[in-house]
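Board notes, transcribed. Complex of a protein with zinc ion.
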Amino acid sequence: MQDSEHSSDYQRIMPLTAEVAVSGTAYSFDMLFSYAVPEKLAAKTACGCRVLVPFGKGNKRRIGVVMKLTEGDTARLKPLVSLVDEEPVVSEELLRLALYLREQTFCTYYDAVKTMLPPAMSVSTKETFRLVKNFTGAGSLSPAAAELLDRLACITDNKELNAVIEEHIIENGRRLPDELCDAGAMDSDNVFRQAVGDAAVRMVRLSDKYMSAPESFDLTPKQKQVAEFLSEYGSAAVREAAYMCGVTESVVKRLCAGGAAEEYEAEVLRRVEGDAEEKRRPEDIVLSPEQQKAHDAVLAQLHERKPAVFLLHGVTGSGKTSVFEKLIDDTVKMGRQAMLLIPEIGLTPQILKRFRSLFGERVAVIHSGLSLGQRLDEYKRIKRGDADIVIGTRSAVFAPLSNIGIIIIDEEGERSYKSDSSPRYTTHDIAKQRCAYHNCALLLASATPSIESYYLAERGAYRLLEMKERYGNAPLPEVSIIDMNLEREAGNRKEFSRKLAEEISANLKNGEQSILLLNRRGYHTIISCCDCYQPVYCPNCSVPLTYHKKNDKLMCHYCGYVSPPVDTCPSCGSKHLKNMGFGTQKLEEELSTFFPSARILRMDADTTFSRYSYEKSFTDFRDGRYDIMIGTQMIGKGLDFPNVTLVGVLSVDKALYAGDFRSYERTFSLITQVVGRGGRGERRGRAILQTFIPEHYIMNLAAAQDYKGFYNEEIAIRRAMIFPPLCDMCIFCFSGNEDISVRLGAEAVLRLMNGKLRELQPKTPVRVLGPVRCSYGRINGKYRYRIIMKCKNSAEMRGFIREVLTESAKLKEMKGVALYADINGDVGV
Ligand code: ADP
Ligand code: ZN
Ligand code: ZN
């Protein structure tokens, strides 16, 4: 067959093989599965299309994505069942990115791709069958198939027919139905149930009550299905939730009636068009000299069209957003696209409003507060090129833009940019990959950059840009540190110091606003024993229970356990129990007794889900309908309230000892950021930092808003102790139902690791620590251990980790024990 004409003929009839990322596979046996592309599908099948494939022994239908197409012998391969998409939903760039994700985060191929798609695209499939009339080939059927056909032929109702076949498949597999389809006796069709977009919709999300105590709800299986769906995707339109779960809307309604979920009006995609007053023009933004300088450096890079990373370190109130606005305007004027990532869903309305007023409908938004249909619509607008500016939280980094000019990560030091469920990616890394592909600029910005980023900037890997002045030369707030020990000595048992009380009352008199930060989630008070000093623990978790005044119950934040208040100590039987600790609820109570006329807004950032309703409260506060806002760290970041002149930090001491090497960094950043909320308008801000450890250097550096001083201290510690960024840290986390088996599993994996390391002799030093019990050794009834490996995140080490994960799944000690690996994740919990 050397003749060229023949060989090209030969190529034309060469069958196609699709390498497919299949849904629902376990990591330890995940790979690309090969399928033959049937001739009738050959013309349309492309990389990045979703397909339906037969999988496993029973040939159950599963959804997958075509990652590769190759020519070759397909004789021994199962064929694809059908195509879900006429056109690829994942671009070549994003397919590559999926491979990167899998390589870096140890997830399956399918999970990597799924992360990039809006949830409405993780379609649920339903197959329907129909008998072919006048079928004549019964003679060639196997006896069993002929018998099934006879049985089916007696059924007149199509619904019943499908029910019977479905039952048959569950019990006996697909062999006979497939035979009938192949012989032409029966047709099968796949209906892809996709949620549809709808502009004005009733939305549904889980209630805070359900989130904090799911076990206290008695749900029907169907309601449970809806609850699980909502907990995975955040929120959805009522119709969508019903549709995606295959239940009627009344199931969703009953879930709401029972208090587990709540309905609300979708309001996030409000348009600002037609609102003439709101319209702004990018040309009218005048940057300050400092802002201009930072802007020009990045703009020069945009013209260069080479990838580069900038770190913009700008003090709170320096006007980083104005720099973003200008750069995004430049980018779209160059015909390229822009992405702006923000750390919190609660910040979207404010940012979105600003950008819509400048760029109108060209702005698309992606986050989990939107209905599935809205998310799909926004996704499509981006994919079509109708929107060339994308704003969103972490997952927006995968937005299907095709010609990116700039990616901006605002408040880049926030931990929310690291995904803490599979795939455990870091947004920065994904952004860098996309920048390399698009030859574009990545701009990281914060008043308190992560130690990792600042380190890279210092070493010249990132270009450091600085803005040291607040916009309009407003001074930074004047911070006083209050020693709470002295307050106690003076007989003040209250949570707020005398100085803070004075300042609050001065603010009330002057009609100025105050923000009080109390970083203890919500209400709670810990119940502690006066005789044995033990707090009352959750029976499922190694976490103290907290007292909720609202329902007079003890609750566990981690598993939702609820019990009535106890009067005897579970450890020693003593009757001497006392309430300890202090939460926002109690603070509100104390404040309103002290300042009866004050209008107090309490923001309980207790669950992620209440974040969706923040917008209205924040707007009300900004519009002056409240005098004092109290809340947890949620209120501390990114928001701009010009009338706030007083910030009180009630107690962050405990956060310093959170048992994670990042706890100093987090605490410093939190104080600096919340103090930075004050004095952003005309009047100078004051801040009061209450602490029992006034001499601690973190308190002093935060009071001075001295990031550089903090960085120098911190990097010295990290260097001495060898912590990131001086190394990478892979955390292996084990969990299971029995303490002893989890520990034995972890120890077996440790032996496996040590053996493999001796063989491998890695090029860079590796230190393995543990296994130790996690800080919360038990959560939701699952015991948890971890092994920490300090190493270099190299291809060699990732290969090693992959092998450990795959081989440990086969260890007998690991039976019933779950394991994941997370590079540079959180050690804390
Ligand atoms: P940062 O995010 O750096 O803390 P912001 O972007 O919130 O600061 O800006 C602080 C305040 O200064 C905002 O009220 C903003 O409107 C104002 N501001 C900043 N830069 C400008 C500018 N170039 N023109 C007009 N107002 C500005
Ligand atoms: Zn006791
Ligand atoms: Zn618990």
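The chain is about 35% helix and 25% strand. The CA atoms of residues 28 and 810 lie 9 Å apart.
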